[in-house]
From TrEMBL:
GO MF assignments: DNA binding
Gene3D superfamilies membership: 3.40.50.2300, LytTr DNA-binding domain (2.40.50.1020)
DNA-binding recorded as keyword: yes
SUPFAM superfamilies membership: CheY-like
Keyword list, A-Z: DNA-binding, Phosphoprotein
Protein name, UniProt field: LytTR family DNA-binding domain-containing protein
Origin species: Jejuia spongiicola
Superkingdom of the organism of origin: Bacteria
Length: 254
């Protein structure tokens, strides 16, 4: 059976894709996972073998699918599913084999799958079903991560070096917490910040906090397979990790 990953923030659309797959051919496809956000999609792709095919929406619940593709070396084929046509050129610069506009009809869906099977048969697309998807070359000199953020406190603007930031957190708006314990509001989303800083230095624990690895005091058992993080300076909420993120963090720290 062919392993399918669906990255889609609308449950109705995800279910529609599954119905279209079953209509195309029963007992041919296995749904590995249904994911609705950038963080979980990135972590899933890092921690699992690459699927045979990805159905990927453009706009996800916490950002854009390109936030995933800019960070990871995704070599398996992708069929984009979206209600907007303005991203088509950008999509086809990736490993895309088709770009389906919603509402997706069975005819257009079947045509996309037929294209996928032809490419698969002639080896024009390598599905890499048994390979891990990896982060893009983080040591490349062509990648320039942010070295500082301009933060404001009162009437003063201060350049704060990224290495001096303990974590970014969201509380209505996004704040920066420095290792010295100061908090500064920042006009950016956590997803945007995450894509601009080194993924080996910062870890996205959940939707509310992005942590500098050096700010982690210790990890503690929460539930079987799940961890909590203790950070310094102290964060007011308990930081609980999912099983996948717990595993990913342990790998990152080891």
């Amino acid at each position: 059976m062919l392993r399918i990953l669906i990255i889609e923030d609308e449950p109705i659309s995800s279910k529609h894709i599954i119905n279209l797959l079953n209509s195309y051919s029963k007992n041919t496809f296995y749904i590995d996972a249904e994911i609705d956000n950038v963080i979980d999609a990135t972590n899933w792709l890092l921690l699992n073998e690459a699927p045979d095919l990805i159905f990927m929406d453009i706009n996800l619940s916490d950002g854009s699918c390109f936030d995933v593709l800019n960070k990871l070396d995704v070599t398996c084929p992708i069929i984009f599913t979206t209600a907007y046509d303005e991203y088509a050129i950008k999509a086809f610069k990736t490993n895309s084999i088709d770009y389906l506009l919603k509402p997706i009809t069975q005819t257009s869906f079947n045509q996309a799958l037929t294209k996928f099977f032809k490419l698969k048969k002639t080896n024009l697309h390598q599905t890499n079903s048994y390979n891990k998807i990896s982060l893009k070359d983080l040591n490349s000199s062509s990648i320039n991560y942010k070295e500082r953020f301009l933060v404001k406190l009162g009437n003063k603007y201060t350049p704060l070096k990224t290495e001096n930031i303990a974590y970014f957190y969201k509380d209505d708006i996004v704040f920066v917490k420095s290792f010295s314990g100061n908090s500064y509001p920042i006009n950016s989303s956590l997803t945007t910040i995450e894509t601009s800083i080194c993924p080996n230095a910062f870890f996205r624990a959940n939707r509310k906090i992005l942590i500098n690895i050096d700010a982690i005091d210790y990890l503690a058992q929460y539930k079987p397979g799940q961890l909590t993080i203790k950070v310094s300076p102290k964060f007011d909420e308990v930081i609980v990790l999912s099983q996948e993120k717990s595993s990913h963090l342990k790998t990152l720290l080891n």
